[in-house]
Every structure is written in structure tokens, then in C-alpha cells.
Design a protein that fits this description.
Order of helices and strands: EEHEHEHEHHEEHEEH
Largest sheet: 7 strands, mixed
Shape: globular
Strand order of the largest sheet: 3-1-2-4-5-6-7
Strand content: 15-25%
Helix content: 25-40%
Number of helices: 7
Distance between the termini: 39 Å
Length: 206
């Protein structure tokens, strides 16, 4: 299997993890969380890409320290994502942050019987885990609701973890404009989400 079903990716962002990093949104999810901002994205037609070509692309980007993978649900494509990350890391040292609706404990249980989940999980430096719960959205940055955890699985970001994830108390958002779409990057505040929706509406009317 050398294909990934994705929504889109951006070459560089500052709002989805420490340092400048790439970001990839895979398509498809097994959850139906009320208020999830990815539902609209998952209604769009999938973009099927060759994972090795995508790995070559991310490997060639200068000025990025790593990649953040979100969705959708990344662990529905764990084998392909493991292969992509492994291919990137053959060429350069690259950090990996993953957002998943599964909790770490659920993933560890899955890994007992699914080698692809085990291998992909072992490639991750930081996991942001758990389903989005709209009633627990407390506005803290880098995760959607307070039940979700930011878990370090390696020491890669140990020295910057407190500065980036603990001391920061403001959600930051980037708007990326392409010829075909307007993408929101980051965990949005209510105002940020409304701004993105308004921009998309205006673009669709043109």
C-alpha cells in the first residue's frame, strides 16, 4: 500500500507544534464529535497521493523541524503514515506530532494486535489524544477540549515543552490561501472559526 487519502497539507506553519513545521491532514474519521471543525473537510472529495512522493516533498523543505499530522483520524491509515514518516527519517531528522481521537491507552491496546498501529505509534514524539468534547472546550491552545492530553512519547521536545505547551495560554491561527481553497491552520478560538467561515463564504461567492 503506497497511497494516502488526504485532505491537504501546508509546507510551513508555526501554530501546530514547536518550531517551523509542515502539517498534513488525512481524510476519513471513525468518530462523529459534535462541533468538530474537520467534519466539513471530510465531506470533500479525497485527494489520493503517493506516500513516497509526499515523503520526498516534506524531506526537501528547508527551514522545517518536523511535521504535525491531523485529520480526520490518522490511525485509520497507520501503515501508510508509518511508511511515510520512516521514509522522511531516512533522509533527515524530523519530529513527529500527531492528533488522534483515540486515547493513548486505546492505541496501546490496538497495538497489541495491529503491527501497523504499533510501528506508527513508536514514530511519534508528541501525541495529542482523545475525542473532541465541545462541552469541555476551554479555549486553551493546541488541543480542542480539556479532556485531550498533550503527551510526550520521546524526549525530543522535552526542553521546549513547558514554554510551548504549558506557559502559552492563547490560541493562534493561520489562514492559508491557495488558488482553490482557504485553509485554517491551528486550533481556532470561536472568533477565529467565525472569521475562517466568513472568508470561505466570500471566496465561494466569487
Amino acid at each position: 500500500m503506497n497511497e494516502l487519502s488526504i485532505s491537504h497539507y501546508v509546507d510551513e506553519t508555526k501554530v501546530l507544534g514547536p518550531y517551523n513545521r509542515s502539517a498534513l491532514w488525512v481524510r476519513g474519521c471513525c468518530f462523529d464529535c459534535l462541533g468538530c471543525i474537520a467534519k466539513e473537510m471530510n465531506r470533500e472529495a479525497p485527494n489520493i497521493v503517493n506516500l513516497y512522493q509526499l515523503a520526498d516533498h516534506f524531506s526537501s523543505l528547508e527551514g522545517t523541524e518536523g511535521i504535525t499530522i491531523s485529520g480526520g483520524e490518522p490511525f485509520l491509515q497507520s501503515e501508510a503514515l508509518y511508511d511515510m514518516v520512516a521514509e522522511i527519517r531516512k533522509k533527515r531528522d524530523y519530529g513527529v506530532i500527531v492528533y488522534s481521537g483515540f486515547t493513548l491507552e486505546e492505541l496501546q491496546s490496538k497495538a497489541e494486535n495491529d503491527e501497523s498501529v504499533k510501528k506508527f505509534l513508536n514514530q511519534i514524539d508528541i501525541l495529542i489524544d482523545g475525542r473532541y468534547d465541545q462541552s469541555k472546550d476551554d479555549g486553551r491552545p493546541y488541543r480542542g477540549s480539556e479532556n485531550q492530553r498533550i503527551i510526550t512519547l520521546t524526549d525530543r521536545y522535552k526542553d521546549i515543552y513547558n514554554e510551548y505547551y504549558v506557559e502559552c495560554n492563547k490560541r493562534n491561527l493561520e489562514i492559508k490561501v491557495t488558488p482553490n481553497n482557504i485553509y485554517m491552520v491551528g486550533v481556532p478560538s470561536k472568533h477565529g472559526l467565525e472569521t475562517w467561515k466568513e472568508l470561505k463564504k466570500k471566496a465561494e461567492l466569487k
